[in-house]
Design brief:
This protein is mainly α. It has helices at about 70-80, 100-110, 130-135, 140-150, 155-180, 200-215; strands at about 40, 60, 70, 95-100, 110-115, 125. One of its GO terms (molecular function) is zinc ion binding.
Length: about 220
């Protein structure tokens, strides 16, 4: 039996965490190219431990020579080498196969603790950690809400955008009027409120109407 120590390098309290940096699968802080980190609570059988990272297997892969490694560990190793890390037999990644369902189920049932133990002390099977983080963990929920708030514009920003839009519309309207001052103005001669008929013009119209009626 191998005693697997809890990995604490990536775990911490909520201080220093951010939604952009934290891993969405294991809840820890680690580089994207690194393996996921888990805080195992029990001893793990040697047969379930990767011989490269010395941690319980993740996505286990079996070699033709009978050894098992994490997919991530083995693929990175074979980028630079062409042999099995244990017996040094010639090996290429395409020759390896995923481990049996039994082995994968045993690994998924390993007990781990929520990495944000300062606020969440729940223990669960490894396969249940990701759903726990996204649905129940208070730290994960707070980090997600803070990230969403930063994406949403504040009321002052919305108000400022509205004012900028109105100012821009007014400026465009003023520019249009300056380029075409006759726009929105009535055509000359159609309406002239200052015009008043003289008495002679009125008498003339009366005479014309009378003559038309006589005819």
């Amino acid at each position: 039996m191998a005693t697997t120590e809890a990995k604490v390098a990536g775990s911490s309290s909520a201080a220093g965490l951010s939604w952009a940096r934290v891993c969405k699968e294991c809840g820890q802080l680690h580089e994207g190219s690194d393996c996921h980190l888990y805080e195992y609570q029990d001893e793990v059988d040697d047969e379930l431990v990767c011989h490269i990272c010395l941690q319980p297997l993740l996505r286990p892969m079996d070699t033709p020579c009978g050894h098992t490694y994490c997919f991530h560990c083995l693929s990175n190793f074979l980028k630079e080498q062409d042999f099995c890390p244990v017996d040094r037999q010639r090996l290429q990644l395409h020759q390896c196969r995923p481990s049996s369902l039994l082995v994968r189920n045993l690994l998924d049932k390993l007990t781990v603790m929520c990495p944000h133990s300062a606020e969440c002390q729940l223990k669960m099977q490894r396969c249940e950690l990701q759903p726990h983080l996204h649905n129940r963990c208070p730290v994960f929920r707070r980090l997600r809400e803070e990230a969403e708030k930063r994406k949403r514009p504040s009321w002052n920003e919305l108000k400022g955008r509205k004012s900028d839009g109105e100012s821009s519309a007014d400026a465009k309207h003023s520019a249009t009027l300056s380029q075409n001052p006759s726009r929105d103005q009535p055509e000359p001669g159609l309406i002239n409120p200052a015009y008043e008929e003289s008495e002679d013009e009125i008498n003339y119209k009366v005479e014309v109407l009378s003559a038309c009626q006589c005819v």
